[in-house]
Amino acid sequence: MRWIVALCCCFLIASLVSAQPNPTISATAERLLSDFRNDDGTMPDGSMTTRDDSSALKKALNAGPGVVQIGPGTYRIQAVTIPENVTVIGTGPGTVLQAFGEQPVFLQQTSTAWKLRDLTIQGEAIGAWQKRTDRAAHGMVIEACWGYEVSGVTIRNCDGAGLQIIRSNNRASGFTDGGTLTRITARENFIGIRFDTRAEYITASHLHCHHNLTGLIIHAGNTNIASSNIGDNRDGLVIVDHENGSHGSITGCLVNHNQRYALWARNVTHGMAIANCCFFYGTIRIENCSGVSITSGLISASISTEGPDFNRLSGNHIIPLTFQFDIAPSTLLDGNFTKTGPWEHNRRWLCGAKWHAWRRVSGRGDLTRPLWHLSRFPECLPRSSSRKTVWILRCDGQCHPMLSAWGPASVSDFSPPPFKDERLFGWVERVPDSIRP
Asked: What does the alpha-carbon distance between residue 214 and residue 137 come to, in Å, rounded to a whole number?
C-alpha cells in the first residue's frame, strides 16, 4: 500500500513540474537581443535604422547576469547602462549602435564587473572630421566605475569625445583596477578618447586614435597607456592637468603624422613618464610643466619648451630634418643623439663640463654661446681668476633671463641669501673682465 501512495506522489509532482511555463530566456545563459521586444512590440533585428531599440536592449541587459549578443545591423540606442556581471558582445564592425539626441549610446555610472566587446558606436556628426565641434555629444560615457573592460570597440563620428571617462572609483578598486581598455579605435571625433578629471588607475593598450581634432587627452592622474597609435589627428596627445592630474606612464606609443602638436603638455605639475615612444612630425610642446620626462624614444619633430620648472629629454634619437628647437633653460637635455653623434643641444650636468645651449645676443642679456656648467653643490664651484668675471644666469618670475656681473665668485655668492627669493639656474660663463652685458 505504501508503495502505491509513494508512486502516486511521484506522478503528482512530475505533473506539477511539467505544468510550469518554461522561461523564454535563462537569466544566466547567453541571450540574443532579437529575442526581446521593444515597448511598442517591434523586434530589434538591426534592419530599421530609424527605430529606437533602447527599450529592448534594456530588457535584455536587465534579465540577469550573463552575455547579451547583438547581431549585425544598425540599432538606435540612447543612454543604456550595462549592469554588473553582464557582457555585451557584437559581431565586430557589422554591429553598429547609433547614438541619437546628443546622448551617449552607453552611460555607465558607479558600476563594476561589466564588459563591452566587438562592436561599433556611431555618433550623429556628419561631414568632414576637421569640422567637428565639442557639443558634449559623446559616444560612450564611463563615470565613477571600476573593474570593467572595453575591448574591440570602434567609436566614430562624435561631436564630443568618442570615449569619455571621468572619476574612477579608486577606493572601491583598491587604487589598482580603475578599468581596462584594449583594442579601441576612435576616429573622426572631436576628441578620440578623453581621460577626464580623476579617471585614474585605468590600464589602456592598443588604442588607435586617428582623424580626430585631438586624438587622446589626459586630464587625470595615474593613467597607464601602452602600445598605442595616435596619428593623423590635428593634435595627437594632449596632457593638461585637472584635479590630481598627470603622474602617469605612457610607453611604447607611436605619435606620428599629427598636423599641429604631436605632444602638447600644458600646466602639468606632477610629472609624466613618457618612454620608448616615437614622435614623427608636428611639434612636441611642453608649456609651464614640471617633471615631464621623454626618454629612450625617436624624435623627428620640432621641440618647444617654456616655463621655469624642470623637465627632461634624455637618451632619444633625434632626427633633425628641418625641425626647429626652442628650448627653455630649465629643460634638461642629456644623452640625446643623432646619426652623426651626440646632439648639439645636449646639456651635460657634470662639474666643469661645457653646456652647449646659449650664445650672447648682441645688445641683450640672453646667453646662447657655450657656458661652463656650475652645479648647485659648493664643491663643484669653479676656481675664479682675477682676470675673469663670473656671470650668473638667473630668471625672474616670468622666466626672463637676467645677467649679473659678479667678480670672483665664492660659495656665498651661490647660497641663500641672495637667491632665496629668486630661481637660480646655476649656469655661468667665464669671460674677460672687459665684456659687460
From this structure: 15
Instruction: Please tell me the distance from the alpha carbon of residue 383 to that of residue 388, in angstroms, as a whole number.
Output: 10
Which candidate, 222, 223, 221, 225, places its Cα nearest to that of 242? Answer: 221
pLDDT at 428: 40
| Statement: residue 424 has pLDDT above 60 | no
Q: How far apart are CA 259 and CA 21, in angstroms?
A: 63
pLDDT digits (tens, 9 = 90+) for 298-349: 999 999 999 988 999 999 999 987 899 999 888 999 999 999 999 988 864 4
Give strand pairing partners of 393: 403
Domains of the chain: 26-342 (2.160.20.10), 354-432 (no CATH)
What are the E-state strand segments in 37-94? 66-69, 73-76, 86-89
Give CA–CA dist 285/282, Å, rounded.
10
Q: Determine how β-strand 292-295 pairs with β-strand 311-314.
A: parallel
pLDDT digits (tens, 9 = 90+) for 42-100: 999 999 889 999 999 999 999 999 999 999 999 999 999 999 999 999 999 999 999 99
- The answer to whether 407 and 389 are in contact (CB under 8 A) is yes
115: confidence class by pLDDT, cuts 50, 70, 90: very high
φ/ψ of 173, rounded to 5, equals -85, -5
CB 299 within 8 A of CB 274: no
Q: Cis check for the bond before 418: say yes or no (omega within 30 of 0).
A: yes
Among candidate residues 308, 395, 295, the one with its CA nearest the CA of residue 336: 295
**Whole-angstrom distance, CA of residue 326 vs CA of residue 340:** 21
